[in-house]
Design brief:
Chain lengths: 166, 495, 333
């Protein structure tokens, strides 16, 4: 995992990933404390006690995040050695790209073309991404959204958007 | 005895039995649909109760409530989609068990724990309602504040491998919970002028996003692995396992009763407190979070212990402790009844008939639950390649249905990606959820205490209840510290 | 490609299924102008299920259906006070000729305190009918030393006191702020989340006073858990005939104090006039029905008296008043 050179003098952190995670969160926390809190949390007028301020809890949570991130970095540098379980990555690119497409379909098309069509579309994309080769399964992708949407609308009275019905 | 016959007269009608059975069944089914929760199930059933007798209507809703709570645990165990924040605690051990092929065992244990807790909770409602309601009224903002502080210490025990990472996740949860309009001043916090964020983030999209969606993403990012067929049929729950967990179930039920009787804390805290208590007492601490059956039992007991007890403030004071009881309060009002002290004076037979019905609903839950397990555990046999796309579809529909808003679908996906990243870098999701749920309660009660006490800090130590929870908080912290040092020593010794 | 054929066959099947249902409603759409309703009526509740607005709306929907107006579907669209659903209604669009909304004080107060609303709470809507008014009651804990509004005000001018509410911008909160401004008392607002949390604080005496809605406190007043000092409406309530109105106090600028939790139906400006007329006619019958009467007596409410035009003028006044109250309380944006 570590990229540091193999000199005898070089220092190897016990758990590099914790150091990286800690560093990212530390930077994030500092950004939150010094930019987000003052710019995106309005201070209320007439705050008598600092603990009453809308900025108090987010500020505290931000500082705590920063402190714990620092601890995480220290632990990663000097703590116990962690055995790495090699991550199980490496699915084909098309597979996860189709998954992202399916998620995008749900988000961008839902209101526009309705629940049934997005449901069918996204499910088919995900089936194809796996890929599933049995034909019969694709019928599920068709039947389920239609059945579920009608169940939601007719039985549960939950109005899901549909393209052709207002 | 005249009163008794009056009670029976009200209760003994076919409608009531049908209402309880249908209610529990509908509750289990809707609760078991990803994205649909017990809360929604009760809300959806409300209009159907208009034309019913009051007692029938209330029993139907209570049945749905109880069934829905259990149904939410079914999905939590089988497909990592909790139906309520409380069943997110069940998921910690239930889902690993299901993955190891013990879905049926986990589901059974969840059911038994639920039913027992439900029963204990109902007994508390029937015999101690008046007394518990008085305690509840002694819970002002300072008492709540310390109760929440104590609840926050359980973050340490649900953090898994790294306490530091757990604490970071909890802080992030708190930060996310502050999004919305400020409770006291109405000023904007991290809303970026977006109207969808002003009412703060609703928990259903967060819950589904955090737990269910990462499973979907993970599946499609990983290399294809051949489906391991884990026959759900095989492993049942052994008597030994049940006996081992029984103590935790009873303790969890009692936590649930006390917390449920106090309006405004809710089942989440009860489930997690019960879970961490069970973990603390258990000889197999290390196995918690990896598929420990006692963990499932403890969290379900805490969760369901709340269900009967939330009716205590509702019936005796007319105060709804959570969203579901608020809807049930609405049902009372539609039928011309106002829960509260007067109801006990004017409509006592109705109350007792209600109690009988509620007891009966626990038994019905046991029967319906057993049938449901038989069919739902088949879900564990469906290959993930087919199951996950369909789960995702349900999640999307469910997230939309909460507020009828596409924005919530987006939120769910964002939290899904966040949950995926959390899994990758080893940040536990449960502390994030606890931070998100308890953060606002912490802040609200801190500020209310300051407002009521006119900025005098002495209000935080104003009575025995505050002292009790301060002691509990400190003890919990000390205990966690001691455990941390012991494990460190053990680890050092082993390396 | 195999997938291509899958897509096309799916599309055809979906089209067929959907068209079948669509044709049922499409035929009737031709008569849109005179025939109303031509579709299900949607009653939007701008809050989540279970609250007073929701319960009332579901009852009204049920009663309207009995008047033969076809299906009335209740739809909860909570968010940002009530301004999310209201903003959506103001935008109009698809289905707005069959959409009505249950407006409540949040409609006027929201306009006063939410930043940068993109609609005008008065001019962007057609007002159908005011349905009910629920009085607020000035209540103190049972063991409070104050038995009258005068005693309370005199004490609150000397000492710091607190009042609870169900949240910033609720009618309970704004009534309290208005009272504070008019009487020049030292009241501090303690917000809770919902009436359910606010009530225990009052019962246990953690806060000194509240201006809570009638249905939440009525049974506690009757069982002596709370003392009612006054009602906030111009007339006494028939449910608490012995409790004076704030106007009756006649001092401390209270002679114009009148707040209530009012509820009424509003709709988009493009709503057909035929629809407004039919709804008005149906509502009139509903409001005279015994079922409606017994329902609102449970809420401690009075039937609404204002017609559409009066309702509109009333809301214009409300908006102006709450804007001023909010800015004096420092919660306006």
């Amino acid at each position: 995992m570590t990229t540091s050179s193999e000199d005898a003098t070089s220092f190897r952190p016990a758990n590099t990933s914790n150091v990286i995670v800690g560093a990212v969160f530390l930077v994030g926390a500092l950004f939150f404390i010094f930019y987000m809190v003052p710019h995106h949390i309005q201070e209320a007028p007439l705050v008598k006690n600092p603990m009453m301020s809308p900025r108090w809890l987010p500020g505290i949570a931000g500082w705590l995040t920063a402190i714990f991130s620092l601890l995480l970095i220290l632990e990663g540098l000097f703590g116990q050695k962690a055995e790495h379980d090699k991550s199980q990555d490496g699915g084909p690119a098309l597979r996860w790209m189709l998954m992202i497409v399916a998620l995008a379909v749900y988000f961008f098309l839902f209101e526009w073309v309705g629940a049934i069509i997005t449901g069918v579309l996204a499910t088919v994309i995900l089936f194809a991404a796996h890929p599933i080769r049995q034909w019969l399964v694709y019928i599920l992708a068709l039947v389920f959204p239609v059945a579920v949407v009608f169940f939601f609308i007719q039985v549960l009275d939950v109005p899901l958007p549909l393209l052709f019905l207002s | 005895m005249e009163a008794f016959s009056e009670v029976l007269e009200i209760f003994l009608s076919l409608d009531n039995f049908v209402a309880i059975a249908v209610g529990v069944l509908v509750g289990v089914v809707i609760g078991a649909i990803p994205g649909l929760t017990a809360t929604m199930a009760v809300a959806l059933a409300l209009p159907f109760t208009f034309s019913m007798e009051p007692i029938t209507a209330i029993l139907l809703l209570v049945g749905i409530y109880k069934g829905g709570m259990y149904g939410g645990s079914i999905t939590a165990i089988l497909i990592r989609t909790p139906g309520s924040p409380a069943s997110a605690c069940t998921l910690l051990d239930g889902y690993p068990l299901a993955q190891q092929g013990h879905a049926k065992k986990a589901l059974k244990m969840a059911l038994y724990a639920s039913v027992i807790a439900d029963f204990i909770s109902n007994l508390a409602l029937i015999f101690f309602a008046g007394y518990l309601a008085k305690i509840a009224l002694n819970f002002g903002p300072p008492e709540f504040f310390w109760l929440i502080c104590f609840s926050l210490t359980i973050i340490i025990s649900v953090s898994g491998e790294s306490v530091i990472k757990g604490l970071i996740a909890a802080c992030l949860g708190i930060i996310v919970s502050t999004i919305g309009l400020d409770m006291v001043y109405g000023t904007q916090r991290l809303t970026f002028d977006n109207y969808n964020l002003m009412d703060s983030i609703s928990f259903v999209p967060l819950l589904i996003g955090l737990f269910a969606i990462p499973e979907v993403i993970e599946f499609y990012v990983k290399k294809v692995v051949p489906h391991i067929k884990s026959k759900a049929e095989g492993a049942g729950l052994s008597l030994a396992e049940f006996k081992r967990s029984f103590g935790s179930i009873v303790r969890g039920s009692l936590f649930g009763v006390v917390i449920g009787a106090v309006p405004g804390t809710g089942a989440t805290a009860a489930a997690f407190i019960s879970y961490s208590d069970a973990k603390r007492r258990s000889p197999n601490k290390e196995n918690f979070g990896k598929g420990e059956i006692e963990g499932v039992a403890a969290s379900e007991a805490g969760n369901n212990g709340v269900a009967g007890a939330t009716l205590i403030p509702l019936l005796s004071l007319g105060i709804p402790g959570d969203v579901i009881t608020a809807i049930i309060l609405g049902a009372f009002m539609i039928h011309g009844l106002t829960p509260g002290p007067l109801l006990f004076q004017e409509n006592l037979p109705l109350i007792y008939a209600l109690f009988i019905g509620i007891m009966l609903s626990s038994i019905v839950l046991f029967v319906v639950g057993n049938v449901a397990i038989k069919y739902f555990s088949m879900i564990a046999d469906i290959p993930k390649s087919i199951l996950l796309p369909i789960v995702l579809m349900f999640c999307v529909y469910g997230a939309y249905a909460v507020n009828n808003s596409t924005f919530d679908i987006g939120l769910m996906l964002v939290f899904g990606v966040m949950g995926f990243i959390f899994n990758r870098i080893g940040l536990p999701s449960a502390p994030f959820l606890i931070g998100f749920i308890l953060g606002p309660m912490f802040e609200d009660n801190l500020r209310r205490s300051l407002l009521i006490g006119a900025n005098e800090l002495s209000i935080f130590v104003r009575g025995p209840i505050t002292w009790f929870f301060i002691a509990l908080t400190l003890a919990s912290l000390l205990f966690a510290m001691r455990r941390y040092l012991i494990t460190r020593k053990e680890n050092n010794a082993s390396t | 490609m195999k997938t291509k054929t899958i897509f096309s066959s799916i599309y055809i099947a979906v089209f067929r299924g959907v068209l079948l249902v669509a044709s049922m409603s499409a035929t009737s759409q031709l008569y849109a102008a005179e025939e109303w309703p031509t579709d299900d009526i949607r009653l939007v509740v701008p809050y989540s299920a279970g609250g007073t607005t929701d319960v009332l709306s579901r009852k009204v929907a049920d009663l309207l259906q009995q008047q033969g107006l076809g299906n009335v579907i209740v739809e909860n669209r909570p968010g940002a006070g009530s301004t999310m659903a209201t903003g959506r209604l103001a935008r109009g669009g698809r289905g707005s000729d069959h959409t009505i909304l249950m407006a409540s004080p949040g409609h006027a107060i929201g306009a006063a305190i939410y930043p940068g609303l993109r609609y005008d709470p008065v001019e962007d809507f057609t007002f159908i009918q005011n349905i009910i008014d629920i009085p607020n009651v000035m209540v103190v804990p049972a063991d409070s030393p104050y038995d009258s509004v005068e005693a309370f005000v005199e004490a609150a001018r000397k000492n710091e006191m607190t009042f609870s509410s169900s949240g910033v911008g609720s009618s309970i909160h704004m009534s309290g702020e208005l009272f504070k401004n008019l009487t020049k008392t030292n009241l501090t607002h303690v917000p809770y989340r919902g009436s359910g949390e606010a009530l225990p604080a009052l019962l246990s005496g953690d806060v000194d006073v509240s201006f809570d809605n009638m249905p939440a406190v009525l049974s506690h007043i009757k069982s002596d858990g709370l003392k009612a000092l006054a009602v906030t409406t111009p007339e006494r309530s028939k449910y608490l005939p012995d409790v004076p109105t704030l106007q009756e106090v006649g001092k401390y600028n209270l002679d114009e104090f009148a707040t209530s939790a009012w509820f009424g139906l509003i709709t988009h400006n493009s709503f057909p006039q035929a629809g407004v007329d039919k709804l008005n006619a149906a509502l009139e019958k509903v409001m005279q029905s015994e079922e409606f009467d017994s329902f609102i007596s449970q809420l401690g409410a009075a039937p609404g008296k204002q017609s559409g035009e009066e309702f509109k003028a009333f809301i214009a006044d409300e908006v102006a008043r709450w804007k001023q109250t909010a800015s004096e309380a420092g919660i306006s944006n």
